[in-house]
Design a protein that fits this description.
The protein has 272 residues and is an alpha/beta fold. It has nine helices and twelve strands. It has helices at residues 17-25, 56-64, 82-86, 117-123, 126-134, 155-171, 196-206, 222-228, 254-267, and strands at 29-34, 69-74, 93-96, 101-103, 109-111, 138-141, 145-149, 179-183, 186-190, 210-216, 233-237, 248-250. Strand 8 (179-183) and strand 9 form a beta hairpin. The termini are far apart.
């Protein structure tokens, strides 16, 4: 089974944030790439109630008023979910489902070419779905993946859920068609071919003159940190540090808000 590719992380040179903001101030293009859950918003057992940290909305609205700044959301959620959570004056573009979905600021939606049959086979297995529910988990269907959530479950329940999913995975040889990815709060069985790293590569190619930053928290963000590592600022946002390909670490919400304030300041020519 495919685990996250961040199990062995080579030391990365620390990011000089002061220099980054000097470079940002002189840039003709500024590219701010943002994960949502765990980065801009604390995790919630009910994902539809995972609202941004206080102060995030106002700061993103201010950044998006800068004509040189391009804000893009890069999330594992379905792309259309973020509008009701962020409630910004103007929505940024959203790459959802780890890059399989694209929703631009005008509402134009695209779904990458994919074969949903491996996911449908799992969903037809009612016994598996019932077993997940009995153990305290839930299955979320996404366009390109199935996520088995266990956030809020006791450690013993989590262990049972992981074993149940692994047994199903092995019994049905799911590794031949789906990637296994553990995230903070569950497991995702995902169609291979796209991830947050491929999104970052696409955006860096689209904005070749940009000074860029990617902010994320989870193992699913490691592909993005790897993609931006030598071409911008990969920044880990979470209360506790963990090994990562990111080159800087911010504790939310205070240090996250400070980072956004500094972005606003340089966009205004050094004035808050």
């Amino acid at each position: 089974m495919d685990q996250a590719r961040s199990n062995s992380v080579a030391p990365a040179p620390a990011l000089d944030l002061a220099k980054f903001f000097v470079d940002l101030g002189g840039a003709v293009q500024r590219l701010l790439l943002l994960d949502y859950d765990g980065t801009l918003a604390p995790f919630h057992v009910q994902p539809e109630r995972a609202l941004p940290y206080e102060g995030v909305r106002e700061r993103l609205d201010a950044i998006m008023r800068d004509p040189a700044s391009y804000v893009v959301m890069v999330t594992g959620r379905p792309a259309r979910e973020l509008g009701n959570l962020l409630r910004l004056q103007r929505m940024p573009s959203v790459w959802g489902s780890h890059g399989w979905e694209y929703l631009n600021a005008d509402g134009e939606y695209r779904l990458g070419p994919l074969d949903p049959r491996p996911l449908r086979r799992i969903l037809r297995d009612r016994a598996f779905e019932q077993r997940v529910r009995e153990l305290g988990g839930r299955i979320e269907q996404k366009p390109s993946a199935l996520a088995i959530h266990w956030r809020g479950a006791a450690p013993a329940q989590v262990a049972e859920l992981r074993d149940a999913v692994r047994s199903h995975w092995l019994a049905h040889d799911l590794g031949a068609t789906l990637s296994w990815l553990e995230f903070d709060g569950g497991i995702e069985l995902r169609l291979p071919g796209r991830d947050k790293g491929s999104v970052v590569e696409t955006l860096l190619a689209a904005y070749p003159r940009a000074v860029a930053a990617y902010l994320g928290d989870d193992l699913t963000d490691e592909d993005a940190f790897r993609a931006i590592r030598d071409r911008g600022a990969g920044i880990l946002v979470r209360p506790e540090y963990r090994p990562t390909f990111a080159r800087a670490w911010l504790r939310p919400p205070e240090q996250l808000l400070d980072f956004l304030d500094r972005w606003i300041a340089v966009a205004r020519g050094g004035r808050l």
